[in-house]
Amino acid sequence: MFHAPLVIAADGNSARMALSLNIRRREDRPLGVAVRQYYRSPRTHDNYLESHLELWEGKPGASRLLPGYGWIFGVGDGTSNVGLGMLNTTSAFQNTDYKDLLRRWLNGLPPEWGYTEENATGPVRGGALPMAFNRAPHYRDGLLLVGDAGGVVNPFNGEGIAYAMESGRLAAEVTVQALARSQGPSRERALQAYPNVLRQRYGGYYTLGRVFVELIGNPTVMRTVTRYGLPRPTLMRFTLKLLANLTDPRGGDALDRLINAMSRLAPAT
Hints:
Elements: E1 7-9, H1 16-20, E2 31-40, E3 50-52, E4 68-74, E5 79-87, H2 98-107, E6 125-130, E7 139-140, E8 143-145, H3 161-179, H4 185-216, H5 219-229, H6 233-244, H7 254-265
Parallel strand pairs: 1-8
Antiparallel strand pairs: 2-5, 2-6, 3-4, 4-5, 7-8
Helix pairs in contact: 3-4, 4-7
């Protein structure tokens, strides 16, 4: 058996370390699911990630528009990463065959892109996306949660890698400060600051994200957003900055300042 004065848990969505201390998933926070597959494709050297916002439960225009998106990005090694994600803010979340949804979406793409079964380099893989601090507290009894273990996935777009790395850095900084103190109340106070640091960094933005996912869980809202929002370049630039968290924290343009102000004013919970 191993012993340590502190443990930083980066064990992903399984969160076994957190569960050992009875830190369970918050049901009031969004959860996503994503599936992806790699294909040999001439688009392997694409410079940008491509997003498709129209995922239909049935045939396009004949059924519900789902709260999620499909993505395509070139890996640069002859393949593309192609997948889709969806949120649990719709009743279809539990009743969707995601592999079939991926297949039906890919069947509607140009065949010359190569996203066909004969070009697949491996099976479809999938996993849950724990979003917006859906596991808390982030510190308890010498255990700090980072990344998916702490539900630090961006609720706007399902991005988790950057936030895992950033929360790991924040946890490391808190740990260095804590271990510089003598074991006891002083060290514990330093460690108790970790959840506050996370809330200050992401709390307001994730609150906006929770509102967003609730709204797009409504098929009428999702249909209206895609129909009337996509043709408006300024609105789409705003949406891109908001969903991808691409604002300049030092000021930037008017859209940056608006989104940064919204994040500061939103409750950091």
